[in-house]
Specification:
Blueprint lengths: L1 E6 L5 E5 L4 H10 L3 E2 L1 E5 L5 H12 L3 E5 L2 E5 L7 E2 L1 H4 L9 H8 L1 E5 L12 H9 L3 E5 L2 E5 L8 E3 L8 H11 L5 E5 L5 H12 L3 E3 L5 E5 L4 E2 L2 E3 L4 H13 L4 E5 L7 H9 L3 E4 L3 E5 L8 E3 L11 H9 L4 E5 L9 H7 L3 E5 L2 E5 L8 E3 L3 H13 L3 E5 L2 H4 L5 H7 L3 E6 L2
Parallel strand pairs: 2-17, 3-15, 4-16, 7-8, 11-12, 20-21, 24-25
Antiparallel strand pairs: 1-25, 1-26, 4-6, 5-6, 8-10, 9-10, 12-14, 13-14, 17-19, 18-19, 21-23, 22-23
Helix pairs in contact: 1-2, 1-7, 4-6, 5-6, 6-7, 8-10, 8-12, 10-12
This protein binds ligand EPZ.
Length: about 425
């Protein structure tokens, strides 16, 4: 196992290039199961989770060839319908094969994803949507068993849950509906850019989807889809993480390249409120931190609101911001595992229900800390960049699931950071 070691206090200067979006490539690779023929997907990030999806697609009988930041997937004949526990339990996004298998084969058996440290993450909306399309669904022995002997049919589906829309439920239902008879409407659909990228990919394969990116998606079913060629959008969460990194230390000047500033509006608005200088072009954002920061109030919401996947990172910034910042988590009310580790570094964060009250401190002090999930580990690295002395972030396998070579990218910006084997 590796750990990441950081000596804090170094100003960050220069440019960083963002990789393809993890949360776009995973459902898009699953969607390739819907097509006859080969799909080639470019600009994919080199991540643990992409490796897991490759394994899963191969177990399902697809031919998968990996290239440098590209993958070719051919889901010809002989597809299997069982997505096994040993793979699905390691990556929740595996549930995305449920819709495509059901639509393509008329049956699917997908292991239930199981628990997650960021909160209870049920899949009731996925199952509700697929049942509306005519699937018979049972849960047996820890597996979702779905059957549509006569194929799937159109439906009007309201996909709103207790925390608003669901990204992967929208993805699963949309992928199933593209081969259903008739025209389906998904109301209260999620609007995330990753879903728009998925719908664009499906339309290139011959699907007829409209309204993606809005809360009402219309899907006119077709008989079959063909392989296609597609490039993945940049990762807005990785981009946001580096934008916050550029704001952590006074005197820093970081340009984030190959990103879409439109996708980070909510974060950029908060950084400007905090007093950070932001300059945008069509595909880059320059972050300059000159003066003292000002406290902010942040509430996480479905897109285009402030993303929950940047909550821990903006909290890391708030820990070194004079005054009191308030961060409210509306998507995963318990997503605060990083708080105790940040407080080990000398921050003053207090939890009140689903809000964190952050009293800014002058300095954080470097310490050994434990990563608990992907975004929490990114926040600990950001805190380590600003802390006095040495920080060791343990269990960085969480990080490798969603960030490509983060320590190399930060080191190229002037950070004193490296990866070492655990003692
Ligand atoms: C996606 O997960 C992302 N994962 C998550 O990113 C992200 O945190 C989340 O969307 C919210 O933005 C991928 O895209 C692979 P949801 P997803 O369904 O689709 C509740 C990361 O760090 N809900 O939109 O699983 C759910 O419990 C990961 O990259 C139901 O109640 O999230 C949550 O409170 C972590 N029933 C809320 O909705 C359901 O059937 C939003 O979850 C589905 C969800």
């Amino acid at each position: 196992m590796d750990k990441i070691v950081i000596k804090g206090g170094k100003k960050l200067k220069g440019e960083v290039t963002i990789s393809g979006a993890k949360n776009a490539v995973l459902p898009i690779m699953a969607a390739a199961l819907l097509a006859e023929g080969t799909s080639r997907i470019e600009g994919i990030p080199s991540l643990q989770d992409v490796g897991t999806m490759v394994k899963l697609l191969r177990v399902l009988g697809a031919k998968v060839n990996l290239f440098d930041h590209a993958v070719e997937i051919n889901a010809g004949n002989g597809l299997k319908s069982i997505a096994p526990y040993h793979l699905v339990s390691t990556m929740r996004a595996s549930v995305c094969v449920l819709g495509p298998l059901l639509a393509r084969l008329g049956r699917a058996e997908v292991s239930l994803p199981g628990g997650c440290v960021i909160g209870s993450r049920p899949i009731d909306l996925h199952l509700k949507g697929l049942a509306s399309l005519g699937a018979e669904i049972t849960i047996e022995h820890g597996y979702v068993k779905a059957r549509a002997k006569k194929g799937l049919h159109r439906a009007d589906i309201y996909l709103g849950g207790s925390y608003g829309s669901s990204v992967l439920a929208t993805a699963n239902v949309m992928m199933a509906a593209v081969l259903a008879r008739g025209t389906t409407y998904i109301e209260n659909a999620a609007c995330e850019p990753e879903l728009v990228d998925l719908a664009d990919f499906l339309n290139k394969m011959g699907a007829r989807i409209n309204g993606h990116g809005s809360h009402l998606i219309q899907i006119e079913g077709v008989d079959k889809l063909m392989g296609t060629h597609h490039s993945i959008i940049p990762d807005r969460i990785e981009a946001g993480t580096f934008m916050v990194a550029g704001a952590m230390i006074r005197g820093s000047d970081v340009t984030v390249r190959n990103c879409n500033p439109e996708h980070n509006h909510a974060l950029l608005d908060k950084l400007k409120q905090a007093g950070v200088a932001v300059t945008k072009t069509a595909d880059s954002v320059r972050i300059r931190r000159n003066g003292l920061l000002k406290p902010v109030e942040v509430t996480t919401l479905p897109y285009p609101g402030f993303p929950t996947d940047l909550q821990a990172q903006i909290m890391a910034l708030a820990t070194v911001t004079p005054g009191i910042s308030v961060i409210t988590e509306k998507i995963y009310p318990d997503r605060f595992i990083h708080v105790s580790e940040l407080n080990r570094m000398g921050s003053k964060v207090f939890l009140e229900g689903s809000s964190a009250i952050v009293h800014g401190v002058k300095h954080l002090s470097g310490a050994p800390v434990m990563a608990s999930d992907l975004r929490a580990s990114a926040a600990l690295i950001l805190a380590g960049l600003a802390a006095e002395g040495k920080t060791e972030v343990h269990r960085v396998y969480h990080l490798d699931r969603g960030y490509e070579r983060i320590e190399e990218k930060l080191s190229a910006l002037g950070a004193s950071i490296g990866r070492e084997k655990e003692d």
